[in-house]
Amino acid sequence: MSEILEKIFYQLLSTYTENASRKDKCWNEIEQNYQQENRHYHNLSHLEQMIAALHGAEIKIKDYDTLLFSIFYHDIIYHPAASANEEQSAELAKRRLEELGLPVEQIEKVCGQIIATKAHQRSANTDTNYLLDADLAILGQAPEIYLNYRKQIRAEYSIYPDALFNAGRKKVLQQFLNFQEIFKTPFFKNKYESQARENLQRELDWLQHSS
């Protein structure tokens, strides 16, 4: 799995640098961070799933390179108990992309897209909406896949007792259900909106009855 991601990442970097050691440094950092033991969902599989979810939408994305950088770095810093993961991920991405010599404007776009994954609000930038939708594509999968995702999220938050986790999780689920549209692009909305709402409501109902 990581071999596919590694290939995609190295191809992406090849547009911006020929420095092999710099490429290796960037990839090794991504691989090590996403393979940390506490990452049951926010790992390399998540990145691969996001890229796969965008298959067929590439022609609609204006700056696919920038979007790919945002995917690879959006969860590079991830601690369940922390509240500034996105900001720290964006800062790390900024440092690495500056080292690679990317244009300032492109780096700013990447950082903005990463920060946007914090609240998942509709963006004026269409590419950002594709990133947000790919990040949430798991919500619209078949019930058995969603159930596995739910278990992975619980495992990531295992430091919290059920009562505390359930209360927070219910707020998150209700927040998504309150969105007028969970998915911001027609490409994702047509595929996943209905199933996502069913999955989220089913989990919310389960949590309310188990409390």
What name is given to the CATH topology of the largest domain? Hypothetical protein af1432
Q: What's the count of strands?
A: 0
List low-confidence stretches: none
Mean pLDDT: 97
Residues in helices, as a percent range? 55-70%
Could you characterize what this model shows?
The protein is mainly alpha-helical and 211 residues long. The chain has two domains: 2-135, Hypothetical protein af1432 (Orthogonal Bundle), CATH 1.10.3210; 139-210, no CATH class. The chain has ten helices and no strands. The chain has helices at 2-14, 20-34, 44-53, 64-73, 85-100, 104-116, 126-135, 143-156, 162-178, 186-210. α4 (64-73) runs parallel beside α7 (126-135) and α5 (85-100) packs antiparallel against α6. The radius of gyration is 17 Å and the shape is globular. The model has no long low-confidence stretch (mean pLDDT 97).
Task: Name the descriptors.
single chain; 211 residues; mainly alpha; Hypothetical protein af1432; 10 helices
Layout of helices and strands, plus pairs?
Layout (H helix, E strand, L loop, with lengths): L1 H13 L5 H15 L9 H10 L10 H10 L11 H16 L3 H13 L9 H10 L7 H14 L5 H17 L7 H25 L1
Helix pairs in contact: 4-6, 4-7, 5-6, 9-10
Give a short overview.
The chain is an all-alpha fold.
